[in-house]
Each structure stands twice: as C-alpha cells, then as structure tokens.
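Table S2 (continued). Query chain:
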Amino acid sequence: MNKHKVLLAALLVPLGATLSVVPAASAATPPAPVAVSAFAGASAPTGPEGAAVAVFRSPEAVLGRVAHPLRTTEPRGGLADLRPFGRMVGDARVVGLGEATHSSHEFVTVKHRILRYLVEEKGFRAFALEAPWSTGLRLDAYLVRGEGDLQQIMDEEFQGTYRWWNNAEYRDLLQWIRAYNVKHPDDPVRFVGDDSGFAGAELYDKVSAYAAAARPDLTSRLSELYRGLRPATDAETYVNDYLSKPLAERKELAERTGRAVSLLKQRPGTDADAHAWAVQHATAIHQMTTLFAFDWDDPQSVPDLMLYRDRVMAENVAWWQQQTGDKIMLAAHNGHIALKTYIPDAYPKVQGDFLRERLGGGYLSVGLTFDHGSFNAFGADGAVHRFAVGPAAPGTAEHTLDRVRYRDFVVDLRNAPAAARAWLAAPHTVKNIGATYPGIADAPRIRLSESYDVVIHLQQVEAAHMFK
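Corresponding output:
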C-alpha cells in the first residue's frame, strides 16, 4: 500500500486522518479478517468516566422516557414510527445523517428508510452523499432521466476510497429514488455528490459546452487552462497518477483551474441559471486540484487539508440548497455531520459545524451509534476486510445508550430531561470507525449534546454487502 493510497484512505477516516492509517500501513503483519474490539469484556472504567457513571446514576432510564422506538431498520413497510423524528426535523432544510462505520448494512438501510419518510412526508427532494460532485451528476442523470446503467455507474464512480458506497444497500436506495422519480417526473428526488476527491470528465464537458453556447470567446482560453486535466482513465488510476505529480506541478494546476473559475465569474452569459451551474462545475474542478495541491507528504499539512475538504463539502451542499431550493438529506460519517469536531488538532472544523454556521437551525445533525456488530474497512495490508466489535464497555456512550429500554430508537438531545443533560454534556468514549481499521481515532471522547441534535442508536449492525 503506497503512501498516497494511505493518504487517500485517510480522506474517508473522519478524524484520525493520516495519523490513524500510517501506522497500520507499516505494520509487519495484517490483522485477521475478524477483529474484536478492545472494549469487549473490559472492566468498568475508573477516573472521569467511572465518576460520571456514579454521579449521573441512570441516564438510560431518563432517556428511555423521551426516546422513540424504531419499528425496524429495514427500508420497506410503514413509516408511522418515524413521525416523532419528523417533529424533530421541523423546518430544517438540510438533515445530516451520520454513521459510526462506513460500511454497515443497517446504517445504510436506516438512511434509506428515513429518506423515504423525508421525501414522502416532509417534502425533501435531494439526497447528498460523501462522493465527488461529478459522481453526483452521473447518478442524478440516471435517477432523474434514466441515463446509463446504475450498476455500471456505481462500479465506475465508487472506486478507491469511495468503494464503500458500491454495495447492495446503496443500490437499493438508489433504485428506490429512480422508482419514485418515474412516478413523479415533474417533482423528482435529485442526487448531490458533495465531495472533492475526484473531478470526472463530465465537469470539463459541461463547462466547455456552456462556454461554446454562451461565451464562445472563452472556449480557447478554458481549453488551455484545462489542458491535460480531463480524465482519460478510471477514477482510481487518475487520482493515483495525479498525486504522483511533483507538488509544484500540482500547485500550478490548481492555479490554472482557479483562473478558469475567475474567468467564468467575470464574464457571465445571458442565462443566469446556466452561468451559475457552469461556475459551480468549474468550482468543483478547482476544489479537486486545490485539495491535491496540499503537501500530502507532510503530516503537518493534513489538518489544513482536512479543514479544506470539510469546508467545500459544506459549501457544495449549501450551494445546491440555495440554488434549487431543495431540502436535502445529507449522508456522511458521524465525524463529518457532527456540530463539533472530535479531534481539533487533526480535524479543526467539520462539515456539520460549517453548515450550522451557514444555515443556523436550518441544519439538523443526527448521529448514528451502535453497540456491537460488524463492518467492512481497509486492513493493515490495504485490502478490504470484515471486522467485528463486541459490546461497548461500561462508561462509554454506547454502553449507556444500549441500556435504554428500546432495542433501536431515536432521541432528541435538545429536549432531553434535566436529569440526563449532565450526562449528555459530559465526555464519553464513542465508536468512530473510518475507512481503515484499527486506527487511533476509533474511540474518541465526545460530548453528545455538543455534537448532535438527535441520536439514533442501533443495538447491532452487520457488514454491508459490497460489490467487487
């Protein structure tokens, strides 16, 4: 596993960044396909967490009085049990749904189920995913107009560190959106890729097509600025080759794509909407080249890199919401949709924090936790493995949440009884499993009430069914 591939994996490690994957990559032996959490069977903690348990007595009993059970984690069937969640959503324009692992079946199926509810009952009309903007364009064309083959698009777009989305659960979710859109062609559900880890050929083609139609005087200049950038290989090969370029060359390419954005902004055509989309597509190209213009060989640059990435993900979601008026359900890792970073030194500010800053109460942050189960992740050898973790240890957040009287439930932390607020405001360890396992950010300490508006807790999860 080369250094750049390790850093690419870090893009999907929400808070550990390079620090959590480099040690694993250099390990002498890979982990076994199934690993058991270090929490399993641990004794009750001493120190601050042990004292917290004693002081707060039984927060699970208090939370049980205000929690609402989920009938199922599967997407089919009635949605009446989600009505309390609908009241929690209120007038929010963007709802961020997290996940404690990137590749567990129930985290995707719960999102699918909630998406159904938000679309059918709350008027949401866009689904945003931690995937490139250009990937979003291809999927949106399929979901709205039936262009292309879904499995081919997923195979081609969900590569490299985005491979976690190439699974049966996400295919089912996307097929539901397509079926909905066939029935509602005049009011479709759209797809947004909000990330910056790749810029597909579609972006260059759309910018060029706009210039040819609206500002032909810009065509030759844009072609010059984009020279050598339009992908001609698969996404994973393109990104690996790009990151092998010298840093000075990557910075020069970012400077060029920045000039392309400025050129388009300065010379609008007569169609304001078409111009806005062309600028956004050019911005997405520039976001990728800027991300890759950081010094990926220097661990000291990683916090700035990660800060940039989360900022542009938030900007892309906010841009879509403002441009289209769509209410958006945003899917990403817990660490991205949270209102506050888990590890400030490695990850200064996260997408959810940026969205709260921009949208205020228009953004709702929903963390998803689990007690035990399995997931897919990169191992120390760089290959994908299925891992498992045992029940949470006493003193951790999940240990308490799993003792609430319902197996799976949703609870609004903003309206928690006074008897539970002190526990919610105290730091507790949580499971936080990213693209690589194990990693040093697997068990950070967070304050739930500062991190999320709402928590959905699941007792058990199983690894997602990945393709290829």
